[in-house]
Amino acid sequence: MQTSSNSPPAARPVALVTGAGLRLGSAIAVHLAEHGWDIAVHYRHSREAADATVAACTQAGAHSAAFAADFNDETQTRALLPHVITYFGRVDAIINSASRFEFDDANSFGYAQLDQHLHSNVAAPIVLAQALHHHLSQSTTPTQSGVVVNLLDQKLWNQNPDFLSYTLSKAALEAAGTMLAMALAPRVRVVGVAPGLTLTSEFLDQATFERLHQLSPLGRSSTPQDVASAVLFALNNPAITGTTLLVDGGQHLMRFERDFSKMQA
């Protein structure tokens, strides 16, 4: 387990954002830093990107540090939150943004691919929620509570046959959110946030991304800022648990035969 910089005094609430070195996780981390949160930036391999997120959070006025863990390794996963707590003195929220997203379908499906998706996309968020609940249960303040926000996907409400193992893992995480919200209350709230098509990737060129991004009832899908704002809302609203906020411009209301990454034509 690696971390960067020296331990700060713990004054502001602390959020652990997984997968925060890159893309949506980084945007969420910086947005929370701008709104009063100190940020633990989790990464697996992208140390330089994680350090850049730490720098952006620090510039926004937050205390921030980077922490490495491979979520396919249960020992590393279980060690992550205690390490963050040792550094900051507390953790108030976990945002599970890290996600394995690799292609398979009914023809190419196999045990190994599903196992990898379930470990990183389901088991790790559950272990982290378990650890947060344990941490808060040890608090000398009876009313101290926390929040877990799980990043899901609008395609759970608008399924297609692509990315079979990924979709199964996100469906399992959505179901786990319901169960954890019941099991960990009242100490820990659990909320899902389900974006639509939000960022371009190696699967989509820019022109195709921009066209597909407009395919929604609102004429636009989600932006990183939209998703980050929804996460902040979930953290701040004490009456929300066991449900999912769909932040997708209404894409889940439409029917797509293929995943966006397969809609190049």
UniProtKB/TrEMBL annotation:
Superkingdom of the source species: Bacteria
Keyword Phosphoprotein: no
NCBIfam families: PRK09134.1
Gene Ontology molecular function: any one: oxidoreductase activity
Organism from which the protein derives: Lampropedia puyangensis
Family: Belongs to the short-chain dehydrogenases/reductases (SDR) family.
Keyword hit for ATP-binding: no
Residue stretches spanning the membrane: none
Protein known as: SDR family oxidoreductase
Keywords of the record: Oxidoreductase
